[in-house]
Amino acid sequence: MGYQNSFKVFLCLSVIFLFSMKIMVLEKYFEKINFTAFSIHTTKPIRKGAHYWFSQTNKHANKNITLPNCTLPPDLGPYNIQLNVPLDNEFKNERMSFGGHNKPENCIALQKIAIVIPFRNRESHLKIWLHNMHPFLQKQQADYGIYVIEQHGNLPFNRAKLLNIGYKEALKEYDYNCFIFSDVDIIPMDQRNLYRCSTNPKHMAHALDKFNFRLLYATLFGGVVAFTKEQFLKVNGFSNLFWGWGGEDDDLYKRVITAGMQIERMNNIISKTKAIPHKRDPGNEDNPKSTGFQHVATRNGEPLLEKAARRMYTDGLNSLNYTFIRVMKHRLYTKVLVDIGKPENIEQ
Ligand code: UD2
Ligand code: MN
To answer: Which cofactor does it need (predicted)?
Structure first.
Protein backbone atom coordinates (compact mmCIF):
# COMPACT_ATOMS: atom_id res chain seq x y z
CA MET A 1 0.00 0.00 0.00
CA GLY A 2 1.37 3.36 -0.96
CA TYR A 3 1.52 6.43 1.25
CA GLN A 4 -1.62 7.94 -0.35
CA ASN A 5 -3.68 4.80 0.19
CA SER A 6 -2.75 4.47 3.85
CA PHE A 7 -3.64 8.14 4.32
CA LYS A 8 -7.13 7.42 2.82
CA VAL A 9 -7.61 4.45 5.16
CA PHE A 10 -6.52 6.61 8.09
CA LEU A 11 -9.03 9.29 7.05
CA CYS A 12 -11.84 6.74 6.72
CA LEU A 13 -11.09 5.27 10.14
CA SER A 14 -10.99 8.75 11.67
CA VAL A 15 -14.38 9.62 10.17
CA ILE A 16 -15.89 6.37 11.47
CA PHE A 17 -14.34 6.97 14.91
CA LEU A 18 -15.57 10.57 15.13
CA PHE A 19 -19.03 9.56 13.93
CA SER A 20 -19.40 6.88 16.59
CA MET A 21 -18.07 9.31 19.25
CA LYS A 22 -20.68 11.83 18.16
CA ILE A 23 -23.44 9.23 18.53
CA MET A 24 -22.22 8.37 22.02
CA VAL A 25 -22.13 12.02 23.04
CA LEU A 26 -25.60 12.62 21.62
CA GLU A 27 -26.93 9.57 23.42
CA LYS A 28 -25.50 10.83 26.69
CA TYR A 29 -27.08 14.23 26.01
CA PHE A 30 -30.54 12.78 25.41
CA GLU A 31 -30.19 10.50 28.39
CA LYS A 32 -29.51 13.59 30.47
CA ILE A 33 -32.53 15.39 29.05
CA ASN A 34 -34.73 12.39 29.80
CA PHE A 35 -33.35 12.12 33.29
CA THR A 36 -33.93 15.80 33.96
CA ALA A 37 -37.47 15.53 32.66
CA PHE A 38 -38.03 12.57 34.94
CA SER A 39 -36.82 14.32 38.03
CA ILE A 40 -38.77 17.50 37.38
CA HIS A 41 -42.07 16.00 36.40
CA THR A 42 -42.44 12.85 38.42
CA THR A 43 -40.85 13.28 41.81
CA LYS A 44 -41.02 16.28 44.05
CA PRO A 45 -39.73 16.27 47.63
CA ILE A 46 -42.47 17.46 49.99
CA ARG A 47 -40.55 18.48 53.10
CA LYS A 48 -36.82 18.51 53.58
CA GLY A 49 -35.18 16.42 56.28
CA ALA A 50 -36.98 13.49 57.80
CA HIS A 51 -39.64 13.10 55.13
CA TYR A 52 -39.26 10.17 52.87
CA TRP A 53 -42.09 10.10 50.43
CA PHE A 54 -42.74 11.96 47.24
CA SER A 55 -45.70 13.23 45.35
CA GLN A 56 -46.13 12.05 41.79
CA THR A 57 -47.92 13.53 38.83
CA ASN A 58 -50.38 11.49 36.86
CA LYS A 59 -47.72 10.48 34.37
CA HIS A 60 -45.95 7.14 34.45
CA ALA A 61 -42.31 7.74 35.31
CA ASN A 62 -40.91 7.28 31.81
CA LYS A 63 -43.83 6.31 29.60
CA ASN A 64 -45.63 9.64 29.70
CA ILE A 65 -48.98 7.87 29.97
CA THR A 66 -51.85 9.78 31.56
CA LEU A 67 -53.63 7.59 34.09
CA PRO A 68 -57.44 7.34 34.24
CA ASN A 69 -59.40 8.52 37.26
CA CYS A 70 -59.94 5.83 39.90
CA THR A 71 -63.27 4.05 40.17
CA LEU A 72 -64.46 1.91 43.06
CA PRO A 73 -64.08 -1.86 42.72
CA PRO A 74 -67.45 -3.62 42.29
CA ASP A 75 -66.91 -6.13 45.11
CA LEU A 76 -67.06 -3.81 48.14
CA GLY A 77 -69.06 -5.33 51.01
CA PRO A 78 -69.03 -6.36 54.67
CA TYR A 79 -65.56 -6.13 56.14
CA ASN A 80 -64.00 -8.78 58.29
CA ILE A 81 -62.25 -6.88 61.09
CA GLN A 82 -59.31 -8.63 62.73
CA LEU A 83 -59.04 -7.73 66.40
CA ASN A 84 -56.12 -10.04 67.14
CA VAL A 85 -53.21 -8.80 65.12
CA PRO A 86 -50.69 -11.63 64.77
CA LEU A 87 -47.29 -10.46 66.06
CA ASP A 88 -45.40 -11.67 63.00
CA ASN A 89 -48.04 -10.80 60.45
CA GLU A 90 -48.76 -7.10 60.50
CA PHE A 91 -50.17 -5.57 57.33
CA LYS A 92 -47.52 -5.15 54.63
CA ASN A 93 -47.53 -3.55 51.21
CA GLU A 94 -44.13 -3.16 49.60
CA ARG A 95 -45.31 -0.24 47.47
CA MET A 96 -46.39 1.80 50.45
CA SER A 97 -44.21 4.76 51.49
CA PHE A 98 -42.77 4.98 54.96
CA GLY A 99 -44.99 7.13 57.14
CA GLY A 100 -48.19 5.35 56.11
CA HIS A 101 -48.89 7.02 52.80
CA ASN A 102 -50.32 5.19 49.83
CA LYS A 103 -51.92 5.99 46.50
CA PRO A 104 -53.33 3.75 43.78
CA GLU A 105 -50.76 2.58 41.27
CA ASN A 106 -52.81 2.63 38.09
CA CYS A 107 -55.28 5.46 38.51
CA ILE A 108 -55.65 8.96 39.88
CA ALA A 109 -57.67 9.45 43.07
CA LEU A 110 -59.49 12.79 43.09
CA GLN A 111 -59.38 13.22 46.85
CA LYS A 112 -56.13 13.40 48.78
CA ILE A 113 -57.10 12.27 52.23
CA ALA A 114 -55.31 12.92 55.51
CA ILE A 115 -56.54 10.68 58.30
CA VAL A 116 -55.85 12.36 61.63
CA ILE A 117 -55.94 10.43 64.92
CA PRO A 118 -55.71 12.02 68.41
CA PHE A 119 -53.46 9.91 70.56
CA ARG A 120 -51.89 9.14 73.92
CA ASN A 121 -51.14 5.71 75.43
CA ARG A 122 -53.36 3.65 73.15
CA GLU A 123 -50.73 1.49 71.45
CA SER A 124 -52.86 -1.65 71.37
CA HIS A 125 -55.78 0.14 69.68
CA LEU A 126 -53.49 1.84 67.19
CA LYS A 127 -52.02 -1.50 66.18
CA ILE A 128 -55.49 -2.93 65.49
CA TRP A 129 -56.62 0.23 63.71
CA LEU A 130 -53.61 0.26 61.36
CA HIS A 131 -53.79 -3.45 60.63
CA ASN A 132 -57.41 -3.16 59.51
CA MET A 133 -57.53 0.32 58.01
CA HIS A 134 -54.65 0.14 55.53
CA PRO A 135 -56.20 -2.73 53.53
CA PHE A 136 -59.63 -1.07 53.89
CA LEU A 137 -58.43 2.26 52.46
CA GLN A 138 -56.41 0.61 49.73
CA LYS A 139 -59.42 -1.42 48.67
CA GLN A 140 -61.29 1.89 48.30
CA GLN A 141 -58.50 3.15 46.02
CA ALA A 142 -57.66 6.01 48.35
CA ASP A 143 -54.72 8.39 48.06
CA TYR A 144 -54.12 8.86 51.78
CA GLY A 145 -51.70 9.45 54.66
CA ILE A 146 -52.09 8.49 58.33
CA TYR A 147 -51.22 11.11 60.98
CA VAL A 148 -51.18 10.13 64.64
CA ILE A 149 -50.97 13.26 66.78
CA GLU A 150 -49.62 12.40 70.19
CA GLN A 151 -50.07 14.63 73.22
CA HIS A 152 -46.86 14.86 75.26
CA GLY A 153 -47.04 14.68 79.08
CA ASN A 154 -49.80 13.83 81.57
CA LEU A 155 -51.87 16.99 81.67
CA PRO A 156 -55.56 16.77 80.67
CA PHE A 157 -56.14 15.38 77.19
CA ASN A 158 -57.44 17.69 74.47
CA ARG A 159 -58.74 15.65 71.53
CA ALA A 160 -60.01 18.61 69.50
CA LYS A 161 -56.81 20.62 69.74
CA LEU A 162 -54.78 17.58 68.63
CA LEU A 163 -57.04 17.24 65.59
CA ASN A 164 -56.51 20.91 64.67
CA ILE A 165 -52.77 20.30 64.92
CA GLY A 166 -53.06 17.22 62.70
CA TYR A 167 -54.77 19.32 60.03
CA LYS A 168 -51.91 21.83 60.02
CA GLU A 169 -49.09 19.30 60.19
CA ALA A 170 -50.53 17.09 57.42
CA LEU A 171 -50.75 20.09 55.08
CA LYS A 172 -47.04 20.70 55.51
CA GLU A 173 -46.42 17.37 53.76
CA TYR A 174 -48.90 17.07 50.93
CA ASP A 175 -51.68 18.91 49.19
CA TYR A 176 -54.50 17.19 51.11
CA ASN A 177 -58.04 18.28 50.24
CA CYS A 178 -60.00 15.96 52.54
CA PHE A 179 -59.51 15.39 56.28
CA ILE A 180 -60.92 12.47 58.20
CA PHE A 181 -60.68 12.94 61.96
CA SER A 182 -60.90 9.53 63.56
CA ASP A 183 -60.71 8.09 67.06
CA VAL A 184 -58.13 5.33 67.37
CA ASP A 185 -60.72 2.79 68.51
CA ILE A 186 -63.31 3.03 65.70
CA ILE A 187 -63.24 0.70 62.68
CA PRO A 188 -65.84 0.48 59.89
CA MET A 189 -67.51 -2.89 59.32
CA ASP A 190 -68.39 -2.39 55.65
CA GLN A 191 -66.15 -1.40 52.74
CA ARG A 192 -69.02 0.54 51.16
CA ASN A 193 -68.62 3.05 54.01
CA LEU A 194 -66.54 5.39 51.90
CA TYR A 195 -63.69 7.12 53.69
CA ARG A 196 -64.16 10.20 51.53
CA CYS A 197 -65.33 13.77 51.89
CA SER A 198 -68.67 14.95 50.58
CA THR A 199 -70.57 18.12 49.76
CA ASN A 200 -71.28 18.59 53.48
CA PRO A 201 -69.29 17.53 56.56
CA LYS A 202 -69.88 13.85 57.11
CA HIS A 203 -70.49 11.94 60.34
CA MET A 204 -69.21 8.39 59.97
CA ALA A 205 -69.55 6.84 63.43
CA HIS A 206 -73.31 6.94 63.96
CA ALA A 207 -74.09 3.22 63.76
CA LEU A 208 -71.86 1.79 66.47
CA ASP A 209 -72.06 -1.83 67.59
CA LYS A 210 -71.98 -0.69 71.23
CA PHE A 211 -75.18 1.34 70.69
CA ASN A 212 -76.88 -1.41 68.71
CA PHE A 213 -76.09 0.36 65.40
CA ARG A 214 -78.46 3.23 66.24
CA LEU A 215 -77.81 6.95 66.32
CA LEU A 216 -77.69 7.90 70.00
CA TYR A 217 -78.94 11.46 69.55
CA ALA A 218 -79.60 13.57 66.46
CA THR A 219 -76.77 16.04 66.95
CA LEU A 220 -74.12 13.40 67.73
CA PHE A 221 -70.97 14.22 65.78
CA GLY A 222 -68.17 12.26 67.48
CA GLY A 223 -65.92 9.33 66.63
CA VAL A 224 -65.16 9.84 62.93
CA VAL A 225 -65.96 12.93 60.84
CA ALA A 226 -64.89 13.95 57.33
CA PHE A 227 -64.34 17.55 56.17
CA THR A 228 -63.02 18.93 52.91
CA LYS A 229 -60.33 21.55 53.43
CA GLU A 230 -62.85 24.30 52.57
CA GLN A 231 -65.47 22.96 54.99
CA PHE A 232 -62.93 22.77 57.81
CA LEU A 233 -61.69 26.31 57.18
CA LYS A 234 -65.28 27.52 57.08
CA VAL A 235 -65.84 26.39 60.68
CA ASN A 236 -62.37 27.52 61.82
CA GLY A 237 -61.61 23.90 62.81
CA PHE A 238 -62.40 22.56 66.27
CA SER A 239 -62.44 24.59 69.47
CA ASN A 240 -59.10 24.43 71.34
CA LEU A 241 -60.73 24.90 74.74
CA PHE A 242 -62.19 21.48 75.59
CA TRP A 243 -59.82 19.75 78.02
CA GLY A 244 -60.85 16.29 79.21
CA TRP A 245 -63.65 14.09 77.96
CA GLY A 246 -66.70 15.35 76.06
CA GLY A 247 -68.34 18.37 74.50
CA GLU A 248 -65.79 19.10 71.74
CA ASP A 249 -67.79 17.02 69.23
CA ASP A 250 -71.06 18.81 70.09
CA ASP A 251 -69.26 22.12 69.73
CA LEU A 252 -68.10 21.12 66.23
CA TYR A 253 -71.68 20.22 65.32
CA LYS A 254 -72.80 23.71 66.33
CA ARG A 255 -70.03 25.24 64.22
CA VAL A 256 -71.16 23.33 61.15
CA ILE A 257 -74.77 24.46 61.54
CA THR A 258 -73.75 28.05 62.32
CA ALA A 259 -71.65 28.10 59.13
CA GLY A 260 -74.80 27.16 57.16
CA MET A 261 -73.90 23.56 56.39
CA GLN A 262 -75.68 20.28 57.13
CA ILE A 263 -74.39 16.98 58.50
CA GLU A 264 -74.37 14.02 56.12
CA ARG A 265 -74.66 10.39 57.19
CA MET A 266 -74.73 7.29 55.02
CA ASN A 267 -77.34 4.65 55.77
CA ASN A 268 -77.05 2.51 58.91
CA ILE A 269 -76.28 -0.76 57.12
CA ILE A 270 -73.30 0.61 55.22
CA SER A 271 -72.20 2.60 58.26
CA LYS A 272 -72.06 -0.28 60.74
CA THR A 273 -68.99 0.40 62.87
CA LYS A 274 -66.97 -1.41 65.52
CA ALA A 275 -66.03 0.54 68.64
CA ILE A 276 -63.28 -1.30 70.54
CA PRO A 277 -64.43 -1.44 74.18
CA HIS A 278 -62.24 0.34 76.72
CA LYS A 279 -62.21 2.12 80.07
CA ARG A 280 -61.85 5.86 80.41
CA ASP A 281 -58.17 6.88 80.25
CA PRO A 282 -56.45 8.65 83.13
CA GLY A 283 -56.06 12.33 82.21
CA ASN A 284 -59.26 12.31 80.17
CA GLU A 285 -61.80 12.77 82.94
CA ASP A 286 -65.13 14.47 82.17
CA ASN A 287 -65.02 18.14 81.40
CA PRO A 288 -65.59 20.20 84.53
CA LYS A 289 -69.26 20.38 85.47
CA SER A 290 -70.43 17.96 82.81
CA THR A 291 -73.46 15.86 83.65
CA GLY A 292 -74.17 12.90 81.42
CA PHE A 293 -74.32 14.22 77.88
CA GLN A 294 -74.61 17.84 79.00
CA HIS A 295 -71.05 19.07 78.71
CA VAL A 296 -71.04 22.49 80.22
CA ALA A 297 -67.30 23.03 80.46
CA THR A 298 -66.69 26.64 81.31
CA ARG A 299 -64.03 29.25 80.75
CA ASN A 300 -63.99 32.21 83.14
CA GLY A 301 -67.46 31.12 84.21
CA GLU A 302 -68.86 31.10 80.67
CA PRO A 303 -70.33 27.78 79.49
CA LEU A 304 -68.40 26.92 76.33
CA LEU A 305 -70.96 24.87 74.48
CA GLU A 306 -73.76 27.37 74.97
CA LYS A 307 -71.66 30.07 73.33
CA ALA A 308 -70.20 27.85 70.60
CA ALA A 309 -71.56 29.94 67.73
CA ARG A 310 -70.30 33.21 69.17
CA ARG A 311 -66.82 31.80 69.88
CA MET A 312 -66.16 29.89 66.70
CA TYR A 313 -64.46 32.60 64.69
CA THR A 314 -61.93 33.44 67.42
CA ASP A 315 -61.31 29.98 68.90
CA GLY A 316 -60.01 27.35 66.48
CA LEU A 317 -57.48 27.07 63.67
CA ASN A 318 -56.79 30.79 63.79
CA SER A 319 -55.96 30.78 67.52
CA LEU A 320 -54.10 27.47 67.59
CA ASN A 321 -50.73 27.42 69.30
CA TYR A 322 -48.60 24.47 70.31
CA THR A 323 -45.01 23.35 70.48
CA PHE A 324 -43.94 20.89 67.83
CA ILE A 325 -41.58 18.31 69.40
CA ARG A 326 -40.81 15.85 66.62
CA VAL A 327 -42.18 13.87 63.71
CA MET A 328 -41.47 10.14 63.43
CA LYS A 329 -41.99 8.17 60.27
CA HIS A 330 -43.12 4.65 61.10
CA ARG A 331 -43.78 2.03 58.47
CA LEU A 332 -47.56 2.33 58.78
CA TYR A 333 -48.04 5.90 60.04
CA THR A 334 -46.54 9.31 60.73
CA LYS A 335 -46.46 10.26 64.39
CA VAL A 336 -46.30 13.91 65.37
CA LEU A 337 -45.44 14.53 69.01
CA VAL A 338 -46.62 17.88 70.38
CA ASP A 339 -46.80 19.86 73.59
CA ILE A 340 -50.24 21.45 73.65
CA GLY A 341 -49.95 23.29 76.97
CA LYS A 342 -52.55 23.17 79.69
CA PRO A 343 -56.07 24.39 80.46
CA GLU A 344 -56.18 28.02 81.49
CA ASN A 345 -57.37 27.16 84.98
CA ILE A 346 -54.43 24.88 85.85
CA GLU A 347 -51.54 26.64 87.62
CA GLN A 348 -48.06 25.10 87.81
C1 UD2 B 1 -66.60 9.61 72.43
C2 UD2 B 1 -66.57 10.05 70.97
C3 UD2 B 1 -65.23 10.76 70.71
C4 UD2 B 1 -65.09 11.96 71.60
C5 UD2 B 1 -65.25 11.53 73.06
C6 UD2 B 1 -65.33 12.68 74.01
C7 UD2 B 1 -67.84 8.62 69.49
C8 UD2 B 1 -67.90 7.32 68.79
N9 UD2 B 1 -66.72 8.88 70.15
O10 UD2 B 1 -65.58 8.62 72.55
O11 UD2 B 1 -65.09 11.16 69.38
O12 UD2 B 1 -66.01 12.96 71.24
O13 UD2 B 1 -66.43 10.75 73.27
O14 UD2 B 1 -64.14 13.40 74.05
O15 UD2 B 1 -68.77 9.40 69.41
N16 UD2 B 1 -57.48 9.30 73.30
C17 UD2 B 1 -56.21 8.77 73.49
N18 UD2 B 1 -55.68 8.71 74.74
C19 UD2 B 1 -56.36 9.15 75.83
C20 UD2 B 1 -57.66 9.66 75.64
C21 UD2 B 1 -58.21 9.71 74.37
O22 UD2 B 1 -55.55 8.35 72.52
O23 UD2 B 1 -55.82 9.06 76.95
C24 UD2 B 1 -58.01 9.48 71.90
C25 UD2 B 1 -58.28 8.17 71.21
O26 UD2 B 1 -58.10 8.33 69.84
C27 UD2 B 1 -59.74 7.96 71.57
C28 UD2 B 1 -60.29 9.38 71.45
O29 UD2 B 1 -59.24 10.19 71.95
O30 UD2 B 1 -60.36 7.06 70.68
C31 UD2 B 1 -61.60 9.64 72.19
O32 UD2 B 1 -61.49 9.29 73.56
P33 UD2 B 1 -62.31 8.04 74.19
O34 UD2 B 1 -62.16 6.87 73.29
O35 UD2 B 1 -61.89 7.85 75.59
O36 UD2 B 1 -63.79 8.59 74.20
P37 UD2 B 1 -65.17 7.80 73.86
O38 UD2 B 1 -64.94 6.41 73.44
O39 UD2 B 1 -66.12 8.02 74.96
MN1 MN C 1 -63.40 5.41 72.57
So the answer is: Mn(2+)
The model's confidence at residue 4, banded by pLDDT at 50, 70 and 90, is: confident
Residue 117 CA to chain centroid, in angstroms? 9
Task: Provide the 10 A C-beta neighbour count for residue 302.
Answer: 11
Is the pLDDT assigned to residue 1 strictly greater than 60?
Answer: no
Residue 244 Cα: closest atom of ligand 1 = 14
Residue pair 194/128 in contact by the 8 Å Cβ criterion: no
For ligand 1, say whether the CB of 247 is within 6 Å of any of its atoms: no
How far, in Å, CA of 140 to CA of 70, rounded? 9
Regarding the beta carbon of 79 and ligand 1, being less than 6 Å apart is answered no
pLDDT of residue 64: 66
Find, among 315, 167, 172, the residue nearest to 232 by Cα: 167
Q: What beta strand segments (E) does the chain contain?
A: 44-45, 54-55, 101-102, 112-119, 143-151, 178-182, 186-188, 202-203, 207-208, 224-228, 272-275, 298-299, 302-303, 323-329, 334-339
Residues 6+ apart with CB under 8 A from 3: none
Statement: residue 149 has pLDDT above 60: yes
Give the number of other CB atoms < 10 A from CB of residue 57.
14
CATH code of 99-278+319-348, in short, is: 3.90.550.10
**CA 272 / ligand 1 centre spacing (Å):** 18
Question: CA separation (Å) from 184 to 13, 73, 146, 244, 334?
Answer: 74, 26, 11, 16, 14
